[in-house]
Amino acid sequence: MPSLWPTPNTLAEYALNQFNNLDFFDISLVDGFNVPMDFSPTSNGCTRGIKCTADINGQCPSQLRAEGGCNNPCTVFKTNQYYCNSGSCEPTDFSRFFKSRCPDAYSYPQDDQTKYIYMPWRDQL
């Protein structure tokens, strides 16, 4: 599905007081990458933060380069292989490029090896 926002952009996603009174957060590169990010809680209730601080813009594959960032291949190639519209998809060389530099971040829509970080509700991000 095409993004509602101009790409490329690094996304921080979070939801508060969800299932079992947990908060969750993640970093997504599904819409590409434009800025490094370090997303960390400020309380002791959560054991770790997540980050994507690699120089992706400087190392971006030439096919994905864009002004101000590094596009997701879906934006560039517009094929089901990268959109994951068929209900399932596998990592590609491009998603592996993002994942190798930012292992905490989602690198394609069905990057299920990356899990949200959960923490008790009322702990602060």
Automatic annotation (TrEMBL):
InterPro entries: Osmotin/thaumatin-like_sf, Thaumatin. It comes from the Eukaryota. Keywords: Disulfide bond. Transmembrane segments: none annotated. The keyword Disulfide bond applies. Disulfide bonds join 52-102, 60-70, 84-89. Gene3D superfamilies: Thaumatin. Signal peptide: none annotated. Coiled coil: none annotated. Belongs to the thaumatin family. This is Osmotin 34. It comes from Prunus dulcis (Almond).
